[in-house]
Amino acid sequence: MVRKALTRRQAVQFHEILTTICDKWAVLILYQLSHGTKRHGELQRAIPGVSQKMLTQTLRKLARDQLVRRTVYAVVPPRVEYAMTPLGKTITEPLSALYTWTEDHVREVLKARRAVLTGRRKASS
Asked: Kind and range of the H or E element at 14?
């Protein structure tokens, strides 16, 4: 993959955007929302280990970047739904490819990790 050199400003911008998109919770949230609109509680139940605080912070970042739309309904109790925006939907295919790669290679990566850990244990003995 050949790309032209980035200016310093572009590099900073790319870094900021990739930091948001590639965050572990963002990837999982975007994956869930790629299957349709969800409420906060639905997302929290669908993503094991995410705290309410991290879910809220990540949703705010994704909404700030207009990857996710937050819709508040004026009902009692208040109802809030999250959905992917048209811009957010454009990232579905690349994330799906990453997910598929992970699914296809998880055993190899875990085997490599175990080999490194085993080598460290032997070296420290």
From this structure: helix 8-21
Residues 6+ apart with CB under 8 A from 14: 6
Integer Cα distance of 66 and 30 in angstroms? 12
* Domain edges within the chain: 1-89, 91-125
Would you mind telling me the total number of residues written for the chain in this entry? 125
Residue 9 pLDDT > 80:
yes
Find where tokens 């509680």 sit. 41
Task: List, for residues 68-102, the tens digit of each pLDDT value.
Answer: 999 999 999 889 999 999 999 999 999 889 889 99
User: Looking at the domain that runs over 1-89, which CATH code has it been given?
Assistant: 1.10.10.10
Residues 66, 20: contact at Cβ < 8 Å?
no
